[in-house]
Amino acid sequence: MLALTMRAGVFDCCLTRCCSRLTQPASAGIFLSPRSAPVAIAVDQVGKSVQGPEGEVHILDNITLTVHEGTSVAIVGASGSGKTTLLGLLAGLDLPSRGSIALAGQDLGRLDEEARAQLRAREVGFVFQSFHLLPALTAAENVALPLELAGREDRVRVDEVLAQVGLGHRARHYPRQLSGGEQQRVALARAFVTRPRILFADEPTGSLDHATGQHISDLLFELNAGSGTTLVLVTHDLRLAQRCQYIHRIDDGRLLPVERGAAA
């Protein structure tokens, strides 16, 4: 139990640290279709501000966004534009200064930190640029961690998802024994092992070379299509963003829709 508690703390700390970078202002009001599908994420007039050395700094302002289940959505923008801040709010890793966010039907503002963590364990998967594998755990143990945090044990599922990313033969290897691409494939397997309702991906190919990044991108969208998961992808890579159904750009403090073929 102590080991599991420590693992849970380290894992959720990694999520919080990765998604807590506060940058520069962004704002908008945009709705995504298909409108006939249930709503996975609903954002209503959300703002985020922090206190800086010279006064209050507005990070996000009046963001209104609806993401329907089963859709794939990319948010693009330059470094420091507020992409990761927005993703952290959508996932409940941080709370907005104003407005409301509903994730998987739950109003995040009405949940305490523990309840939000439990919601993420049940409904959400994450993929990050920096893998965030625990070095003392094997590939299989890293993949199994979200199941443990949700109070489940399913070795068959762990083996299945490792095989899906082509790493069934590497299940007993530690992160230090894996290449960067292999580590990100383990991270993908970990993200999908619980069959999450919603997947958040923050620069999933950002630390990989082009060929490896392309392979990871292919795997990400194959797994996403096969599971019907809602995908929210934050990236500066416009080629990766073009693979999503909907693209939005944070620019000069506004979140603007990008028409297909116009993101280049």
Unreliable sequence segments:
1-6, 16-33
CATH topology of the domain at 2-21 and 70-80 and 110-258, what is it called? Rossmann fold
Judging by the overall fold, what is the CATH architecture of the domain at 2-21 and 70-80 and 110-258?
A: 3-Layer(aba) Sandwich
Number of strands: 11
- Quick one: CATH class of the domain at 2-21 and 70-80 and 110-258? Alpha Beta
One letter per element, helices H and strands E, the order comes to: HEEEEHEEHEHHHEHEHEE
Rg, Cα atoms, Å: 18 Å
Range of helix content: 25-40%
- Strand content is 25-35%
Report strand order across the widest sheet.
7-8-9-4-10-11
Any overview of this molecule?
- The protein has 264 residues and is of the alpha/beta class.
- It has a domain of 180 residues: Rossmann fold (3-Layer(aba) Sandwich).
- The protein has eight helices and eleven strands.
- A six-stranded mixed β-sheet has the order 7-8-9-4-10-11. It has a five-stranded mixed β-sheet with strand order 1-3-2-5-6, covered by helices on one side.
- Helix 4 packs parallel to helix 6, helix 5 packs across helix 6 and helix 6 packs parallel to helix 7.
- The longest helix is centred in the last third of the chain and has 18 residues.
- It is globular, with a radius of gyration of 18 Å.
- The N and C termini lie far apart (50 Å).
